Amino acid sequence: MFTGIVQERGRVASFENGRLVVESSLQPAIGDSVSVDGVCLTVTGQENGRLEFDVMAETVRWAKPFGAEVNLEGALRAGDPLGGHYVQGHVDGVGAVRSVGDPFWFDADPSVLRYVVEKGSITIDGVSLTIAAVDDRGFAVAFIPHTLDVTTLGTLGPGDKVNLETDVLAKYVERLLKKA
Predict the structure, then answer these.
(1) What confidence score (pLDDT) does residue 6 get?
(2) Residue 15 DSSP SS3
(3) Interatomic CA distance for residues 71 and 55, integer angstroms
(4) Which of these, 12, 65, 36, lies nearest to 126 by C-alpha position?
(5) Low-confidence stretches of the chain (pLDDT beneath 50)
(6) Is the peptide bond before 103 cis (omega within 30 degrees of 0)?
(7) Within 10 A of 113 (CB to CB), how many other CB atoms are there?
């Protein structure tokens, strides 16, 4: 589990044959989980400032391709502050930047939008954010300058793809209501 509070921007060194290598100053142990642009991955190797991950075909199918830079967050540990919201690192869909400015607008598939509510939480490329507005095609997010500076979101432009994860609580509520 993660909070969506990015700890650093890493640089992709390589991604070949399902093996992702990211340059990072994070020091997780082998077997630990790390959110890479919002995708929960298990560390399978770590040395000399590089983290290695085996990426399953399911991840490649559901997530956007890894870019040159990625947002990184180590897994939440008991007793850590919960500064963002509960994030699983399970991508619900890929959205696209509609426009940048104040606010940024993102287009999303209806399967994602069903869980999006104004003032609710969303994770974009692993970053915990609050939804400012919703329309039939997507949602808006207002960024503070700090978020744009310390994450990859400040480099986004119209048409760029982003990983989206909606609030897990909404999915549980929907599931429980279906059984009622």
Answers:
(1) 96
(2) strand
(3) 16
(4) 36
(5) none
(6) yes
(7) 20
Which amino acid is it at 42?
T
pLDDT of 80: 86
Q: Does this model's pTM top 0.90?
A: yes
Place of tokens 């589990």: 1
Convert the pLDDT of each residue in 156-175 to its tens digit.
999 999 999 999 888 899 89
User: What would you report as the CA-atom Rg of the chain, rounded to the nearest whole angstrom?
Assistant: 16
**Two tokens, residue 148:** 């744009």
Q: How many residues does the chain have?
A: 180
3-state helix, strand, coil in the chain (%, to 5): 20, 40, 40
- The DSSP annotation for 101-129 comes to SSSEEEE--HHHHTT--TT-EEEETTEEE
What DSSP letter does each residue of 146-158 carry, written as one string? HHHHHSGGGG--T
Predicted local distance difference test score (pLDDT) of residue 84: 85
